[in-house]
Structures are given as C-alpha cells and as structure tokens.
Amino acid sequence: MANPVKPTWPISNNLTPLEPGTVHIWSFHTSRPSKEVGLLSKLLHKDEINRAMRMRSLEVREQSIVGRAVLRIFLAGYLGCEPQAIIFASTGMGKPILASHQGLYFNLSHSHGLGLIALSNSVEIGVDVEKVRLIENSLFLAERFFSPWESHTLSQQPGPEMQSIFFQAWTRKEAFLKANGHGLGFGLDRVEVSLGRNETPRIRLVDGCPNEAGRWTVLHLEPSMGFMGAAAFLATQNIQSLTWHWDGKENLKMI
Questions:
Q1: What are the structural domains of the chain?
Q2: Is the entire prediction scored with pTM above 0.70?
C-alpha cells in the first residue's frame, strides 16, 4: 500500500488521504443507545459477537461491540470495501492484523465510553486510551508494573498530578507494547517511558533490547476531557499525525 489511500466508505466528507509518512487517529464514543449498538452488531462476524457476549457486564459487552464495529467501518473506508468483508487474523503473539490486505496498520483501544483508532500505511502502530480516575493504590501498582525510575518520578508528583502521570505512563507503555506486538505479557516494567508534561514523549529504554527504544516515536494524546492516551509507531523520521472525532451519524444510516 505505497500509494495514498482515500477512504471510499463515507467516514467523513472531506477526509485527508492516508499518505505514507502520516498517521490518522480517530476518537469516537463507545457508549451508545441500544438501538445503535444493535445496528452496529450487524457488521460483526459471529465469533466477534460470541467473544463480546462472554464479557462480564452489559456495558462492557456493548462497548466492545461498538469498538469492533467502528474499527470495521474505518478499515472498510480506507480499503474501499464493505465492513463485513474485513477478515482479521493475528500474529504469533496475538496482535490483530488484516488477513488479506498487507500494508495497512491499525490499532484500537477504548475505555469508559471513549475509543481511539490509529491507522497508518507505512509503520507499525499501537494506541491506548484510559479515563483518568482516582487509583487508591497507584504507588503500589507503580512499584509492581513500572521501572524504579518511573515509580520514583511518580512518587514525587503532587496529589492532583499523580493520577495524570500514572495514566500517562500506563498508556505510553501499553501503546508501545501493542505496536511492537509483544502485548502486556512482555511486562510493563520492562519498558521505561518519559514522564511529565514538560518532557518529550518517548521510550527511554526496553529491557533486554538496547537498541529498541530509539526506533519508536510516541505521541501524547488527550482525546477528550478527563482522558489520557498515547500512540506509538515504528519510525525515527518525522511522521505527521492527524486527528479527528467520528460521530457515526452518516454511517449508521447505511446499515
């Protein structure tokens, strides 16, 4: 997929084509009326519905359905096909990929009613979003899942800032691990990231991989009030990132 890709399923009327060297990041609401959830579920394959139905609560099930359906809508738009025609596969480490369309990289994340989708046609990419909320045992979790430097940095933050920095670290780590395909099984504590609003987002080091950190670019995202996010992609050169919000009104009319 070396050439620019212009979406044909009408995600947005005046959408910039996905050029090599660019990353598109979309936010969308996963908390939707039951009628819309029902419409979106029609875009999913049976195994996706079954997987969602095994989740613990109605809210989580519905948000999973919405997230997966919106991902299909976007991939269909960029590939010029119907959403139901998308066939997913996975890497040996479980990272979702397209079975038949090599060269379009994507990643999905959602948390507490907000979703993010990141797409590129030139670099591996990962994205994560979290609602910033009070975590009573955040320092304990940091000692378990963060590096010693990160834990110390977090402990020095004033109370109101501590939760934001905690989720800043978490989203950067998870975005990187999703992008490189290792997933959380690799170990959050084995990836060290920069922290603080005045620090350039980056991977500081990756345990056991001395040259890995410098191969990745990290974007800091605040897609909506009260949410923290990050995108990571395999690129050392300048990559242009473009962000939009999708409301879904036109696409829902087509289902």
A1: 22-128+238-254 (3.90.470.20), 130-225 (3.90.470.20)
A2: yes
